[in-house]
Design brief:
Number of helices: 17
CATH superfamily of the largest domain: Type I PLP-dependent aspartate aminotransferase-like (Major domain)
Number of domains: 3
Number of strands: 13
Shape: globular
Distance between the termini: 88 Å
Structural class: alpha/beta
CATH class of the largest domain: Alpha Beta
Length: about 500
């Protein structure tokens, strides 16, 4: 006769019908076992009784028990029932007693200094999910030639020209050739294909450059206010950040030299500064390059949306003026094509190519080969240049629609900043207004307008809202202004 097994104590569990029932039941039983409320060898109620008690289907209970059995928490015996496993390690049974409460876990305190800094960096700054006007940095996905892209991808498969093995860490060679040719012609970049490194978006380019060029503790200039992704990449490399103010002429190089002349690197977005939208003047560009030469420092040029300039031709790159090989040029296809592609590029200074290639290989070997091959075809057959030209015209129309709507509904409340380039415009708020509070109120109204203060490490003299327009139709932009108007009109003096 088999020994009598202890009966399980009453099992009380409240299920939330708005959450997956199977997961809740699995979590509840597992926690009861780990905490010792269900001791080893305790018999569980039958699936039929549990289903009746909890008001769920028998299938839901069975699936939860099957998962617990697969993980070793319970074991079933034919015609006897389901029991808590006898072989649970004693250390596992102590977890419930020794673990801190859910709200008091010491996880952040145990991180590295860099980990703690990253946790507080505010990056990523954009919300995930379906974008709402006026989320910045969103391309016009409604106008992307998806059918053409699909045909190019299909042709690659049909003709068996799909690179399936491991690829070059620097990127698919034909794509690197195409990128080098494009940036030479369109951006005045001086490079060969050997200097081009294909990366998973400009964010990885920033991360690799920071790791290759900086030692922990090195000082790096960042624009203030500036791009959160650059701040995060530099923090991840262990850099000490030195904020350098940005005015209507761009990065104040003289201020940077006064505050941190010994910096090893400067991050800039010279063609269209994020988030203020200003352009680094010719005088400041030359000052920055002279400082880099004297200080033997590096310059990271983030050229994230320079293709979209409406008042004149796109400005030549800062890298094209560099005579000393001090500028790392970074570009992305997230803004010109679509962010889900996750492809960008780095133009490494001469002599640094091997280091960048090794860093790329260490990170994740290389970007997906099929997407690189399709993009090489897209550029090489002229589709990319035509697409950028069409999007430039479309974004100009959307910018004009936003400007008109703001002028009509919010004139005297929101003052728009420079809008000659890019995919967003800054809407300045009246002095003394808390832009974070206004942004939160607009979010409740269905409008996504990040506050300027989010992108600054120090208090700003004046707040504002980032108003992205590229990814939204004229109708959506006007409707968003109408939804935002009641909240913003309260700010009238």
């Amino acid at each position: 006769m088999s020994p009598r097994r202890p009966a399980s104590p009453p099992f009380l569990l409240t299920l939330d019908p708005q959450r997956p029932l199977q997961r809740q039941l699995y979590d509840g039983l597992r926690q009861a076992i780990v905490a010792g409320r269900l001791p080893p060898a305790a018999r569980l109620p039958s699936a039929r009784l549990l289903a009746a008690d909890l008001g769920v289907s028998r299938n839901t209970v069975t699936l939860a028990l099957d998962q617990l059995s697969a993980e070793g928490y319970v074991e079933g015996h034919v015609r006897a029932g389901t029991f808590v496993s006898r072989t649970l390690p004693e250390t596992l049974l102590q977890i419930g007693a020794s673990a801190p409460a859910r709200g008091g876990r010491p996880a952040e305190a145990e991180l590295s200094q860099r980990g703690r800094a990253l946790a507080r960096s505010g990056f990523p700054g954009s919300a995930l999910g379906r974008p709402r006007p006026f989320r910045p940095g969103i391309a016009g996905l409604d106008a992307f030639p998806a059918a053409l892209w699909a045909r190019l991808a299909g042709r690659r498969w049909r003709t068996a020209r799909v690179p399936l093995g491991y690829g070059d860490p620097a990127g698919y060679p034909p794509l690197r050739e195409a990128i080098a040719d494009y940036v030479r012609r369109a951006r005045g970049v001086r490079c060969t294909a050997d200097q081009v490194l294909v990366v998973s978006g400009s964010q990885q380019g920033l991360d690799l450059a920071a790791r290759v060029l900086l030692d922990p503790g090195d000082i790096a200039w960042i624009e203030e206010p500036g791009y959160l992704g650059a701040r995060a990449a530099l923090l991840a490399a262990g850099a000490t950040l030195a904020t350098v103010p940005v005015d209507r002429h761009g990065l104040d190089v003289a201020a940077g030299e006064r505050s941190a002349p010994e910096a090893r690197l400067a991050y800039v977005s010279p063609s269209h500064q994020f988030p203020l939208g200003v352009t680094l003047s010719a005088t400041r560009r030359l000052e920055l390059l002279r400082w880099a030469r004297r200080a033997r420092a590096w310059v990271l040029e983030d050229d994230y949306d320079s293709e979209y300039r409406y008042a004149s031709r796109p400005l030549a790159s800062l890298q094209g003026l560099d005579e000393d090989g001090r500028v790392v040029y970074i570009g992305t296809f997230s803004k010109t094509l679509f962010p889900g592609l996750r492809l960008g590029y780095v133009v490494a200074p001469p002599g640094t190519e091997a280091a960048f290639r090794a860093a790329r290989a260490a990170a994740d070997r290389h970007s997906p080969s099929l997407e690189q091959a399709v993009l090489a075809d897209f550029i090489g057959e002229g589709h990319f240049v035509r697409h950028v030209r069409r999007m430039r015209a479309l974004y100009l129309e959307r910018r004009d629609a936003l400007q008109d709507a703001v002028s009509r509904r919010l004139g005297g409340v929101v003052e728009l900043g420079p809008a000659e380039a890019g995919m967003h415009v800054l809407g300045w708020l009246p002095s003394g207004v808390d832009d974070a509070r206004v942004s939160a109120a607009l979010a409740d109204a269905g409008v996504e307008a990040p506050p300027l203060s989010r992108y600054a490490l120090r208090p700003l003299e004046r707040g504002g809202l980032l108003l992205g327009y590229a990814g939204f139709s004229d109708r959506a932009l006007r409707a968003a202004v109408d939804r935002a108007a009641p909240e913003l009109e309260r700010l009238r003096s």
